[in-house]
Amino acid sequence: MNHPAAIGIFDSGVGGLSVYRAIREILPAQPVIYFADQQHVPYGSRPLEEVRDFSEAITHFLIQHGAGLIVVACNTASAAALHHLRAVFPHIPFVGMEPAVKPAAETTRSGKVGVLATPATFQGALYASVVERFASGVKIMSDTCNGLVQEIEAGRLNGNSARHILETALTPMLREGIDTVVLGCTHYPFVIPLIEEICGAGVRVIDPAPAVARQTRRLLERHNLLAEGDQPGEVHFYTSGDPLTLRRQVSALLGEHGRYHAARWEDSHILAPEPSL
Ligand code: DGL
């Protein structure tokens, strides 16, 4: 017998929506609680310990609000906290993210791959281990795309600034002959059209979200948490920023609505006063 659980998804902001979108596509009946820590966005320039503490409090909050499985829809938080979260919440299944270096290394023909991620993700042990395990013999070029997360949060997906940041990152990589770009930050799938325009045909852009969604489904099945039936699952969005702004962002990025709630950091805990939007 199944006991459907809500999926708890979190990110520093709207980046995790790229993962939410993929999850919703294959698990439409599953309820979702999404937490955007927009008071603290961006995570990528913060110390890993700080992001780990945020992640633990958010996970606690999501579990309190009914999440039975957590998707860390943020490469930075996964780098900083995934290991720690599994130890602190041993009864909860977690799905984390790591830059998709493995599929890139397996399919590159030129043997040259570009990785775009935040500074914190590149610093973490997870990234070093992925490169060591899967990328021997492959030349990896990386860039932190400084400021791109803020452009995406502001909804400027095709502005001069986003274009300049991406051209600066990708031009030297393209000159070296990369044929694959790995999106190692969940915000970046929202600028895929711009990345493809800069890279031109012949460069494969890897968005890990569909693979993460499939892994989420596998874990729900394994733990008997899968929701069945045709009714769309309820979706609640919480933000430590402004819920009205988040509602506009979700609607602009995904053309979709759910219920929106304010959540407030108090010391190292999160409170969610009613009412919601
Ligand atoms: N979307 C996040 C990631 O995947 C965090 C970006 C940020 O807040 O710096 O890394």
From TrEMBL:
<feature type="binding site">
    <location>
        <begin position="186"/>
        <end position="187"/>
    </location>
    <ligand>
        <name>substrate</name>
    </ligand>
</feature>
<dbReference type="GO" id="GO:0071555">
    <property type="term" value="P:cell wall organization"/>
</dbReference>
<keyword id="KW-0573">Peptidoglycan synthesis</keyword>
<dbReference type="Pfam" id="PF01177">
    <property type="entry name" value="Asp_Glu_race"/>
</dbReference>
<dbReference type="InterPro" id="IPR001920">
    <property type="entry name" value="Asp/Glu_race"/>
</dbReference>
<feature type="binding site">
    <location>
        <begin position="75"/>
        <end position="76"/>
    </location>
    <ligand>
        <name>substrate</name>
    </ligand>
</feature>
<dbReference type="InterPro" id="IPR004391">
    <property type="entry name" value="Glu_race"/>
</dbReference>
<dbReference type="InterPro" id="IPR033134">
    <property type="entry name" value="Asp/Glu_racemase_AS_2"/>
</dbReference>
<keyword id="KW-0961">Cell wall biogenesis/degradation</keyword>
<dbReference type="GO" id="GO:0009252">
    <property type="term" value="P:peptidoglycan biosynthetic process"/>
</dbReference>
<dbReference type="InterPro" id="IPR018187">
    <property type="entry name" value="Asp/Glu_racemase_AS_1"/>
</dbReference>
<feature type="binding site">
    <location>
        <begin position="11"/>
        <end position="12"/>
    </location>
    <ligand>
        <name>substrate</name>
    </ligand>
</feature>
<comment type="function">
    <text>Provides the (R)-glutamate required for cell wall biosynthesis.</text>
</comment>
<comment type="pathway">
    <text>Cell wall biogenesis; peptidoglycan biosynthesis.</text>
</comment>
<feature type="binding site">
    <location>
        <begin position="43"/>
        <end position="44"/>
    </location>
    <ligand>
        <name>substrate</name>
    </ligand>
</feature>
<dbReference type="InterPro" id="IPR015942">
    <property type="entry name" value="Asp/Glu/hydantoin_racemase"/>
</dbReference>
<feature type="active site" description="Proton donor/acceptor">
    <location>
        <position position="185"/>
    </location>
</feature>
<keyword id="KW-0133">Cell shape</keyword>
<protein>
    <recommendedName>
        <fullName>Glutamate racemase</fullName>
        <ecNumber>5.1.1.3</ecNumber>
    </recommendedName>
</protein>
<feature type="active site" description="Proton donor/acceptor">
    <location>
        <position position="74"/>
    </location>
</feature>
<keyword id="KW-0413">Isomerase</keyword>
<dbReference type="GO" id="GO:0008360">
    <property type="term" value="P:regulation of cell shape"/>
</dbReference>
<comment type="similarity">
    <text>Belongs to the aspartate/glutamate racemases family.</text>
</comment>
<dbReference type="GO" id="GO:0008881">
    <property type="term" value="F:glutamate racemase activity"/>
</dbReference>
